[in-house]
Amino acid sequence: MPDTITLQVARYRPDTDAAPTMQEYVVPLRQEWAVLDGLNYIKDQLDGTLSFRWSCRMGICGSCGMTVDGDPALTCGTFLADYAPGPVRVEPLANFPVIRDLVVGIDDFMRKLPKVKPWLVREDEPGVADVEFLQTPPQLDEYQQYSMCINCMLCYAACPVYAIEPDFLGPAAIALAQRYNLDSRDQGAHQRMDVLATAEGVWACTYVGECTSACPKGVDPAGAIQRYKLTAATRTLRSFLPRGER
Amino acid sequence: MTSHDVVVVGGGGAGLRAAIAIVQADPRLNVAIVSKVYPMRSHTVSAEGGAAAVIAADDSLDEHAYDTVSGSDWLCDQDAVEAFVAEAPGELLQLEHWGCPWSRMPDGEVAVRAFGGMKKMRTWFAADKTGFHLLHTLFQTSLQYEQITRYDEWYVTRLLVDENRVYGVVAIELATGRIQAVTGRAVVLCTGGCGRVFPFTTNGNIKTGDGMALAYRAGAPLKDMEFIQYHPTGLPFTGILITEAARAEGGWLLNKDGYRYLQDYDLGTPSPTPVLRSMELGPRDRVSQAFVHEQEKGRTVDTPYGPVVYLDLRHLGAKVIDTKLPFVRELCLQYERIDPVHELIPVRPVQHYMMGGVHTDIDGATGLPGLYAAGEVACVSINGANRLGSNSLPELLVFGRRAGIAAAEFAATGNTDPGPAVRAQAADERRRLERDLLARRDGRERIADIRTEMQHTMEGSAGIYRDAASLVKGADKLRELRERFGKATVEDASRTFNTELVAALELEFMLDVAETMVACALCRQESRGAHQRTDFRGRDDERFLTHSLVFLDRAGSPRVEYLPVTITRWPPAERVYGR
Question: Is A131 within 8 Å of chain B by CB?
Answer without folding.
Answer: yes
